[in-house]
Amino acid sequence: MAVQPTTEYFDLLNMAVAREIQVSIQYMLQHAKMEKLIRKTIPENILFDKTTYDAVGKFLKEFAIVEMKHAADIMERIYYLGGSATTKANKVMVGNSLSEFAKNDVKAEEEALVLYRKIINTAKEVDDWETREMFEKIYGEEEQHLFKFQEYVNYKDEPEEAGNVALSEWRRIFTDDYFALLNKAVAAEISAIIQYTNQHEKAALLALRGKDTALEVILETNKAKVVSDLLKPIFLTEMEHLEKITERIYLLEGETVTEPEPLPQVGDNADDFLKLDHEAENYALVLYRKIIEEAMKRGDSKTRRMFEDIVSQEEDHYWTFDDFLR
Q: What ranges in the chain are assigned the alpha helix state H?
């Protein structure tokens, strides 16, 4: 290989991965929380089809997807160079208002631009032109994100309602232990997103490097490529699950966790990926059925129906992985 990356170089690239995972989760949680903030719309805005919160919520979701794509591209490059991509994210900072979102996001983007300039210069020094070109493209997109967030730093947030409002009787079912249970689902979805994204990129590299039989050569594919192809739509579905669950928690006046649990595990080959992902889906199915049972006890029909839909999709994922393990 023409490029001879060092441990320090991989550490630098993994700092970028950790930051990209962070902001992807951060922006998605902010997008979900925006539904709660829409409730604070001042009376005259009721006449509009769309408020500032709707507009910002839309591009936050778009940015979250772009950032996860950045993470995937950087992971792929790390694996191509012979390294191992991290599954750890920097600390996620959500906030409680549109202006707080903007300030947290401006800080994250400014830190990214400093880091990415360093990576671009280092890549030039080690003659890693492919990585340099990739980060120059990412840099331009992050700069656009920064400029967008800067527009809202001084936004005048809607005031909090004065005084203490008595909790309606129907809302008393949403207790701390119930939110804790729902947050186990949030943590599981974050874990799955990171795990499947990382495996997708590692499998993509393995697909390029190993065709061990005549059939694989003729078909120009192998097991790793098949696994890589099936993981992408699955982790995109998990992003949708994260959005729905966190949006529900915020609407019920709860707060969400930002750390994965269980910790993401990648593995070394396609068979490892399938086994680990099969176990991850099993964990989710057991947990989500507990949530459905608890929601039924409390009369929370909307959360119950949401998780019934999610379980149906998770079962499809489970059986997809199961088919390969037979």
A: 7-37, 52-80, 98-125, 129-150, 176-209, 214-219, 223-251, 270-298, 301-325
